[in-house]
Amino acid sequence: MPRDLPICGIIVLLLAPNKPPSRQSRAQRTAGSDRMPMIHNTAAIRELVISALDGDELRVFCFDYFPAVHAQFVDGQTQSGRVQLLLEYVQRCGRFADLLEHLRQANPHMYGRYADRLESGTGVEAQSLDALSLESAPIRPCFVGRERELAFYRQLLAEERFIIITGLAGVGKTTLGARLAQEAAARPDQIFWFTFNRVDKNTSEALFRALAIFLAGHGQPDLKRYLDGELSAQNPLGLRAKLNLFVRGLRAGDYLLCFDDFQLAVGDPDVTELFGRIRELFPGPRPALPARFIIMGRHVPPMMQYLAPAALSGLDEEGVRAYLHTCGLSLPDAQMRHLWERTAGHPKLLELSVARLCRLAHDPAAIATYLANMDQQRDLRSYVIGEIYEALPPHERIAADVLSIFPTPAERAAVEAVLGDALASAGDRAAESPVADTLEALADQQIAAVTADGRIGCHSLVRDYFYDRLAVQARERLHDRAARYYEQQRLYVTASYHHLQRGADGWGADLLAGHAKEIVQAGQAAALLDQAARIRLEALTPEQRAAVCQARGAAYEMRGEHSLAEAAYRRGLDEASEDHTCAELLRQIGHSYLAMGRFEEAIEHCRQSLALSVALGDQPGIADAHHDMGWAAYRMGRLEEARDHFGQCRRIGQTRGNGLLQAKADLGLGALAYTEGRLAEAQACYEESRRGFRRAGDRLREARALNNLGLAAYGSGRAEQALAWCREALAILRAIGSMDGICEGLNNVGDLYLRTGSPAQAIETFAELADLAEGAGNQRMLSRAHAGLSDAHRAAGDLSQALAHAELGLAAAEASGRRRELGISLRALGVTRAALGQHETAAPPLQRAIPILEELHEVDDLQQAQEALRVALSAFRSEEEP
């Protein structure tokens, strides 16, 4: 009996009443099934292929190395669809090693970026495969019943393009949504399917990551590039920036985006806001996007409830009759009607009941008893599932217990690892049962299901029943085995979940705290915070509590939530008893204050950290404290104090042979020299820091040093060299994908083009900046872009364009609330109006700009504003004289 034939809702499952389930012989199984094969991270490999090979390169690559895949390519296929064909082929044929070697030869640079993630269990694999891989829609060929509902939602999707399907667990939301997707999409690769779960896919971070991979596979890599960049640069993108990049990617194709188990994500306000904003793009008959959306869940947030029609109910009598007929189960009308009335046509309960009745088809009396007993049940779900469970042989019961501990369909290797141990522990007879046969037997009875991407799990109604009846000791044992498996795979968030489920809060806390850096840098900061919130802090030692607080602080820092990071670190400080931990937490609190611009508090906490580090003889801790104190003093204009701190940091770096510490100190010393007008010394410091960062592999700081080198070189009259350095910095920032860095780099390069007499190149550069900043919703950089465009068009002699951009720049500056940008934009507007001879209207913006520019020491803009104001006032007075 095929395991993947449909369920009711209805997708049909063919159950022959008197025919035992089909089995492959043991000889047909993979030899040595107890030995776990090497598991390849197909999500990372998918990303590598998409990043390493463009459309033409992929076609040639497959022609050369995988002709069987190339033969399946047809016109109109997307890059993502072709990559899927390639991965399916190499998985089916066991040729992952060949694929990886050919990719290494084709693009060694890109291969190097992914090398440590290509096999689960090697390298930094804190990234959950769930968060990275793309799901396939649970589409199956046969659908029974629901004709009225299908027609209703079909029309609603065509008209509204954004629909919500709600209903109780097991009522058939997923099945109906999958059927709609199958009908509406011209090709399967146009469907994006995302199922939220309770572990690592219930946050906006996980959702955006999956959306980014989907869009990159369709030739829209921007969202993925900048999400990768926020991890490399540890500089988070705001929700608006992510949404804008997402929407821009969607405009390129007729995609169908499906989101299942939506109720699991309503606790994340970013998810709620995201879908609220998406819905605003569909006002009326001409929406802003060609994409369509299907949301499925037991409930949705209050702000979305008005969009949801009445909740989905059970099948009608004809639907139940058709389902029984398709399953090959013949019941008298009275019994069929009784089954329908007792289950209320609930698809999952009906499906399970029919699975059990098919097994009793040879015994009419047993069928009658089964149906009669339904009348006596207050909890019909427990009765229906319990009847199936009690009839299972021992090894299949064990398998059902194992599946119940996974909150979401799990990779087959994980299930088999836990089940293999459980069967072995149960005794000789159970251990004789092949793992694969046991799982297939459960699928035959609708207890288990295999997803389109090969994961195994239970429906939540079934899973919760099995889990609730598990003895405490059995739960702990199974969760322990699952945790050890995921820890071996370096999937620390999932491993922590299983430790917490077995009540081992200390183990879960140690995993999250011990691997916080890996987890956060892998884009799972929100997942870490979710799991950390489940830990019973009273079950931990004080040092463990302090470590968990540190992990939470690191996650908040990655998200740019520095006030929350400071609060987490401070709570950790209250718990910590060991001096080295206190020193580190004080330094982290100081760093959070530095990021918030609260420089006095940053210095005070770093000073306390410094005192402890000195007492401990912790030289790296001493250097880090001096480094942050140096920058805080510099920002407050206390230059001698900053020089002392940077100098001490550098001396420690030299003594210990720590090139990164020296480079960080040199960057600060260069800033001091530049501020004091010692440009040759500044260039020397910046050059040393650039070399140090390059040797240390810190590409982001290397780009900062190069940008600063460019500024110092320009101040020394070396304009061409300045431009070369700033362009090199921009190239690095593009490679990293740091959006804020790219914006700053474009602004610097555009400004240098303008200063070196190249207005055409300046216009091109500032136009790119404007496009990027607008897409990211970055009003500050958008104002800079329009001010630059105004200056460049004025230099090119196009004053009308210059005025238009100046006005746009001022609007963006006012929206940003930033005084520096406001001063620059007012200057651009006033200077342009003066150039146009509009002297009366030129003066007011210039008069507003000058005090702002004086306060912020923007010397060049200030001089332009003062000169333009002098000319405007002089001309205005001349015009007034008779």
Tell me, briefly, the overall form: globular
- Main-sheet strand order equals 1-4-3-2
Give the class from helix and strand content and strand pairing.
mainly alpha
List the total number of helices.
Answer: 45
* Secondary-structure arrangement, i.e. CATH architecture of the domain at 147-307: 3-Layer(aba) Sandwich
Count the strands? Answer: 6
Strand content: under 5%
pLDDT below 50 for ≥5 consecutive residues: which ranges? Answer: 1-38, 120-132
Overall pLDDT score: 85
| Top-tier CATH class of the domain at 147-307 | Alpha Beta
Which bin fits the share of residues in helices?
55-70%
Could you describe the largest sheet, including whether it forms a barrel?
Answer: 4 strands, parallel
Give the N-terminus to C-terminus distance in angstroms.
Answer: 102 Å
CATH topology of the domain at 147-307: Rossmann fold
Query: CATH homologous superfamily name of the domain at 147-307?
Result: P-loop containing nucleotide triphosphate hydrolases
The radius of gyration is 32 Å
Description of the molecule:
This protein is mostly helical. Among the domains are: 42-123; 147-307, Rossmann fold; 317-387. 68% of the residues lie in helices and 3% in strands. The strands form two sheets. A four-stranded parallel β-sheet has the order 1-4-3-2, sandwiched between helices. The chain is globular, with a radius of gyration of 32 Å. It starts with 41 loop residues before the first helix and ends with a helix.
